[in-house]
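Changelog-adjacent note: as of this version, every example in the card shows the full chain rather than a window. The one below runs 56 residues end to end.
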Amino acid sequence: MTTAAAVLGALLIVPPMLNVFVQEGVIGGMPATLFYLFTGWLAIIVLVALLVRLHK
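Full-length structure tokens:
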């Protein structure tokens, strides 16, 4: 399962996915691209933490 989380994390930052969110807009005071990257990063961290907790 951790391999799936790693693959998902890699897929979140490939250029085709990033191009969807490259915009001039601002979300929460930061550019939309940064918001997307930080939100995806947080989601992967939470997913891995849940997987580790379930594995114990």
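Structural remarks: Strands lie at 26-27, 30-31.
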